[in-house]
């Protein structure tokens, strides 16, 4: 777990009009809730927040939230992030205050390590789950879930029960779903390859027939 410094200011005004005014001033409307205090309306600096997202992504982010004039910092996690239709502008950010001694549920990105035997033989890697929910204390949260696929052959798969993250991290699930699999080359690919070769093979025969006629 990495704690990232994030600065914020309290805001008193709410509503769509106030939010538009904030965004016009290069700020993002936000809220922090949880813990033992009432939800607090905030404004985040757009440039600072965007730089964090570009560097760290948006999954499993924990912040040392510094609210101007509020005294003690808060340890929070990014709970939700709302974007406009085109995914270009931040509309609102939800932050949740967390207790470092209590377990939380957080989404963590799956990272594939190595190159499988099956892929070397022409198989195709299918990453079925790009992220997984884990339950653990904040300090135990992994940056990514690394899965080594080196020994996977065509037809092999990694299921959630195969993933061991240690005794302090649990992946909640009701069924033993597939996370990664190596599948044979698609039939469509083979057929396209045969169609591409077909004119080359038939051309000489067709030319010979025309010459005989």
Structure, explained:
- The chain is an alpha+beta fold.
- The protein folds into 2 domains: 3-97, Ribosomal Protein L25, Chain P (Beta Barrel); 104-188, RNA Polymerase Alpha Subunit, Chain A, domain 2 (Beta Complex).
- It has 4 helices and 12 strands, in the order E-H-E-E-H-E-E-E-E-H-E-E-E-E-E-H.
- It has a 6-stranded mixed beta barrel with strand order 1-3-2-6-5-4.
- The longest helix has 26 residues, at 187-212.
- It is elongated and about 60 Å long.
- Mean pLDDT is 86; it is low at 192-213.
Task: Furnish the topology, listing elements before pairings.
Layout: E1 3-10, H1 16-24, E2 27-33, E3 40-45, H2 46-56, E4 62-67, E5 74-83, E6 90-97, E7 104-113, H3 117-120, E8 124-127, E9 131-136, E10 145-148, E11 157-159, E12 178-183, H4 187-212
Sequence of secondary-structure elements: EHEEHEEEEHEEEEEH
**Helix-strand makeup class:** alpha+beta
CATH architecture of the largest domain: Beta Barrel
Estimate nothing, just give the exact number of structural domains: 2
Q: Helical segment tally?
A: 4
Radius of gyration, CA atoms, in whole angstroms: 26 Å
Percent range for helical residues?
Answer: 10-25%
What are the low-pLDDT stretches, counting only 5+ consecutive residues below 50?
192-213
Alpha-carbon distance between the termini? 79 Å
Widest sheet, order of strands = 1-3-2-6-5-4
